[in-house]
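Protein: Histidinol-phosphatase
Species: Desulfomicrobium apsheronum
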Amino acid sequence: MRKISLHGGHSGQYCDHARDTLADIVAAYHGAGFECIGLTEHMPPFGDAGLYPDEIELGRTSGWMEARFALYVAEARSLARAYHDRMRILVGMETEWYPGCTEWVKELRQYYALDYVVGSVHHVQGVCFDFSRESYYKVAARCGGTSRMYAAYFDEQFEMLREIKPEVVGHFDLIRLHDPDYLQTMAEPEVWKRIIRNLEWIQGAGAFLDINARALLKGQPEPYVCAPILDAAAKLGIGAAYGDDAHGVADVGYGFAQVEEVLAVRKMRGPEASIAPILGSLCG
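Structure follows.
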């Protein structure tokens, strides 16, 4: 598997829960032998209601965060030029998905002329579920139980897919994050039918699944996406892209060998095989 990461590059400069400078993280990718990387800092929030708890605590505002995002794009483009003959750098963003942000995501993408987006869902019913274990179980209770939270998550993910049309679908099954019985929950008919529906959309759109190694870093037994969903995706011929979801230099390239093995077993095509139809010749 060629060394390509399409979900990475969160830095302490431009993300409050990350570490290190963007330049140091890019240098680490180059040192690790990556030939193409995608920088995907989080999008700035749509209004102050979209701020995360740690951002509120730090006194951030949506306007301040948009200004910081503009600095990120400018530096990322500068780094792409500096490395152009050594490593291909794509400048993108990771989305959020909550009520009211649809047009905002589209505007950001167009205004900053981003190379691509990673479509991610971190909220259910407008409430963030992945900030902490406590927040996860609060959202589950709000939904009426874990399986209903999964169903709501995949419904909102489907809406995100149709509206944003991301090239890469970020950590498809992030909703299993604090569920020790996620395999059983995934298998419930009302959950599984939604998973298949979303995968069929991804297949039709020619998008890629982010095989996100950060799950391994956090002690999960397998990356996002889990084995049953990957098997279903492989049968549909969906492509997969490694993502370390790096939040600092130490995370760069984490779990690459495990992800390579996971994809090899299923003979899933990677971005090196067909990135051109999605991103032009950016990683070709």
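Remarks: The first helix runs from residue 22 to 31.
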